[in-house]
Write a structure and sequence with these properties.
Radius of gyration of chain B: 20 Å
Low-confidence stretches of chain A: none
Mean pLDDT of chain A: 90
Helix content of chain B: over 70%
Shape of chain A: globular
Largest interface: A-B, 43 and 46 residues
Shape of chain B: globular
Low-confidence stretches of chain B: 331-336
Order of helices and strands of chain A: HHHHEEHHHHHHH
Structural class of chain B: mainly alpha
CATH topology of chain A: ABC transporter involved in vitamin B12 uptake, BtuC
Strand order of the largest sheet of chain A: 1-2
Number of domains of chain A: 1
Oligomer: heterodimer
Radius of gyration of chain A: 19 Å
Helix content of chain A: over 70%
């Protein structure tokens, strides 16, 4: 067990963590604005992952090229979901929203099962077996590309929320729902946009994840849980928190899996989750609210 | 007894009696398949009722109740297999373990002010802990599963819970009836009123002098302990336990669908929900079979769509509007 090996594992964990962070960012944005916990988040990501499979096998397109189109498809899915079924639930109790999204998740998982079958599927890109050698530490090229792409999407999203008028309007809805209505913002449309943006994030994350891993229809709930763990660790509703949480959880799982046993790696992230919930419920980067 | 039937309308009593009579008589006419369906229904009705104490009464959303099912199942099964302890004795330690774990989770959450969505996720986290923990707990089989000895029993061994499906059916029926009566009494007790107050507004309840920490703890411990008995039946009926199945989050969700669809916080909701959902699942299976459609996932897609429709159009669940239709609300003109 040399330092190089540990470093390789750690870096690989951080890189995967960045992609996880992007996925969680989608959940965080949706919760932060629409105040609905998207229990179908991981399932939406598996839809994106299967889109990659379809496009890759039909057209041989590289996942990096599919990033924008698949995000656009997921955006549309999220937008329509919010408009058609989630909107009437905005003011309903949590358990009611939870049930709704559980039903949506159930339909998604099984529709994928119906179409693609239960077997694990993956793709092999031209750089799947490439790696960089940085001072004796071997790093997978695919992971590097995926992480860079995830980072670019995240930065673009920050810029969108900070710089554009629509982004500011969405933040206004999040800060004060009634105030936003009073100044004449079309809150329903903005909510749908936000849900679309959250879905696009998860679409981008799913596309990037296909470079480094395989997919099965049943994997959705595990990703939903992972997104929760990350978002709560980082701070629910905080955008930088999601990325920081993603890196932290990615690192923890990689090292936990390496030093103990891979099957127990999620235990470490849950341990972090419990500690954060108890001692810093607002999350690492979260603002303290009443 | 008078206390028990107070403020229950006569029509409701008659209907309850008829339902109970039908359920008691069912095994006389039902075939083996139908008995298994009924066992599934009663299992979910019982577990849903237990979950309802925590969420429906006290307003604490638990998404990790599979944890208590699993603890009940593993504790009693291990005591039976390793030491030959009868499940009727083994269920007491199981009750204590599940209640204690529920208490620990509740204590941590309520002391540190974890509530709402965060509380729900904390309960998932502990269930996942248990799932991964038991996966590596080789004393009870680890991820390879834990099995109870199975043999052909010529007669029911009630004491060791070894025997026919009909025996399990009647045990579950008794459990469901007892849980129903217990919840009915609880709702009319001081604790019940306190729980409803906490559910509606914790701040107002606290301002009125209710010790909300203590009463939330009562709800969690009671709900956890009672749920674990469902786990005992689960273990001895199915005779095999896999952490990946027993503690999985989909198990927790499955368990709470009934009371939510039926009507959260109502006494009859978990029972109605269990009948509807199990009936729906079996009905869909039957239809697929008749149509000769054998596509994995098809049944669940329809199941999900039905859930979606119910939750969209009946936000309070099926039972509250149904109750009004049947005219089972308390007798008009009577006080209370």
């Amino acid at each position: 067990m040399t330092t190089e090996v540990v470093l390789k594992i750690a870096i690989s964990g951080v890189l995967t963590g960045l992609v996880y962070g992007l996925m969680a960012l989608g959940l965080s944005v949706i919760f932060g604005v629409v105040r609905v916990v998207n229990f179908a988040h991981g399932e939406m990501m598996t839809i994106a992952m299967y889109l990659v499979i379809v496009f890759f096998s039909a057209l041989g397109l590289d996942p990096l090229l599919m990033l924008v189109p698949i995000s656009a498809v997921l955006f549309a899915l999220g937008y329509l979901m919010q408009r058609a079924i989630i909107n009437p639930f905005i003011n309903r109790p949590e358990h009611s929203q939870f049930m709704l999204l559980v039903a949506v998740a159930l339909i998604m998982v099984n529709a994928l099962l119906l179409i693609f079958g239960p077997d694990s599927q993956g793709i092999t890109t031209s750089y799947s077996f490439d790696s960089f050698d940085v001072g004796g530490v071997i790093i997978d090229a695919g992971k590097v590309y995926a992480a860079i792409a995830a980072l670019i999407v995240a930065v673009a999203l920050f810029a969108f929320f900070r710089l554009t008028l629509t982004g500011k309007a969405i933040r206004a809805c999040a800060d004060n729902y009634n105030g936003a209505l009073v100044v004449g913002l079309d809150v329903k449309r903005l909510y749908a946009l936000t849900f679309g943006i959250g879905a696009a994030c998860v679409g981008a994350a799913g596309t990037m994840l296909m470079i480094v891993t395989d997919v099965t229809p049943a994997i959705g709930p595990a990703y939903t849980l992972l997104a929760f763990v990350i978002v709560i660790t980082g701070g629910l509703g905080s955008m930088p928190g999601a990325i920081v949480g993603g890196i932290l959880i990615g690192l923890t799982e990689a090292l936990g899996g390496f030093f103990f046993t891979p099957s127990a790696k999620t235990m470490f992230s849950f341990a972090i989750l419990v500690l954060v919930l108890l001692f810093r419920p607002q999350g690492i980067m979260g603002r303290k609210t009443a | 007894m008078k206390y028990l039937f107070e403020d229950v309308s006569r029509n409701a009593l008659i209907l309850l009696a008829l339902l109970l009579a039908a359920l008691v008589a069912a095994p006389l006419v039902a075939n083996d398949y139908l008995i298994i369906v009924l066992i599934t229904i009663l299992y979910f009705a019982y577990a849903g009722q237990c979950w309802n104490i925590m969420m429906g009464f006290a307003g604490q959303l638990s998404l990790g109740h599979a944890l208590y099912i699993g603890l009940g199942a593993y504790v009693t099964a291990a005591l039976y297999v390793k030491f030959g302890v009868s499940p009727w004795i083994g269920l007491w330690p199981a009750l204590v373990v599940a209640g204690a774990v529920g208490g620990i989770i509740g204590f941590l959450a309520f002391r540190f002010g974890v509530s709402g969505v965060y509380f729900a996720i904390l309960t998932i986290a502990f269930a996942e802990f248990a799932r991964i923990g038991f996966d590596h707990f080789s004393w009870v089989g680890g991820s390879g599963g834990y099995f109870l000895p199975v043999a052909n029993y010529t007669q029911n061994d009630f004491f060791n819970l070894r025997g026919s499906q009909r025996m399990f059916y009647y045990i579950l029926l008794a459990m469901t009836v007892l849980a129903f009566i217990l919840c009915h009494l609880l709702l009319r007790s001081r604790a019940g009123y306190y729980w409803l107050a906490i559910r509606e507004s914790p701040e107002a309840a606290e301002a009125l002098g209710i010790n909300i920490f203590r009463y939330k703890m009562y709800a969690v411990v009671l709900s956890a302990a009672l749920t674990s008995i469902g786990g005992v039946i689960f273990a001895f009926f199915y005779n095999n336990l896999f952490p990946e199945q027993v503690f999985h989050i989909s198990r927790s969700i499955e368990l709470i669908l009934g009371p939510i669809i039926g009507g959260i916080g109502t006494l009859f909701g978990p029972i109605v929900g269990a009948f509807l959902l199990t009936g729906l699942a079996e009905g869909l299976r039957e239809i697929m079979l008749r149509l000769g459609i054998d596509l994995p996932g098809m049944k669940q897609v329809f199941y999900g769509i039905c859930l979606l429709v119910v939750i969209m159009f009946l936000p309070e669940g099926v039972w509250p509007p149904l109750k009004k239709k049947l005219g089972l609300d308390r007798d008009p003109g009577k006080k209370n």
